[in-house]
Here is the input.
Amino acid sequence: MKRILTLALAFFMLFALTVIVSAAESAFEEVWVTAEQEFYDDPETLELGGHGQPIQYVDGYGVGYSSLNDQVIYRDIDFGANGADKMLINFSNGGEKDTTLAIYIDEKSGDPDATFSIPNTGGWEAVWAEDFESAIDVKGGVHDVIIEFTNDNSGSFYYIKFFEKAAGGDAAAADEPAEYKAVGEVAVPYATPEIDGVVSEGEYPEEGKVILNQSNMTALGWVGEVPAENSIELYYAWDKDNFYLAGNVTDPAFEYSNPGQYDMDAFQVSLNIGNVFKTDEGFDRAIFYSWGLQEEGTIDVIRQESANNDTIFEVGKGQKTDTGWCFEVPLSLEMLAED
Here is the structure.
């Protein structure tokens, strides 16, 4: 019964969440041009707007020396669950004619997703900048935004911003089944924790934490309801090598698992990266990663329903606590991609 309760808790914890592993900026806040901005410069058009200089960041001007075909590229902009239906750009134009722009989402292909034609605003510097808006249709999720200059009149801009679609419209991925809805979501922050079996204060950013308990979980089909004495403080993080999961589990009757097993108290996570586990009828079962804590403080991760149903020995660490147990487990991004 102990094992069944644990697996029930894990199953419903993880299907009540959409976990977004991303350091994305929100599309619905001002996303500024910075000195680290990514640009594409067309070397054949340096004299068509940019006065012989490549497009670049210029203090006080934002984007400077733009020419025909040059691009400003924003990577990994988060459009949330609903997507956007309007875009704003803060722009200044000191030229005699309009500056024209084309907006592409993710890649330059076919017709632009939006266009702008920006008249003279009185000058090139930031003090002359005005807000301009255009309709656009962006699905939910994380996307790249490409802004291309489409004529030989230069211009300066400082930030962009999008406006969220109303919930219930053609939101998020419109091709997803309507019944596939997340109860909540956690934006996973970038961090590299020390895997020592202790969730230390400040080791995991607070924005990557979620508390799961009787008030926001269910165990229907297993034990009927989550016991009031069971809960978990769950932490997420990622870096260039791993997706990290850590937890402080409250369980007054904790029991160790055996090596290579999750046969007593255990945690189980199902990851559907990119929603690839999808059928015509809806969403299929995704890959499971399961583990329990062994008495010597090590954690073996069991891969299930993956391309490689194997066990990774001693990949994580944990310990028994006064209130239950805790764990820290790094899941290799290379392994997740392989699975």
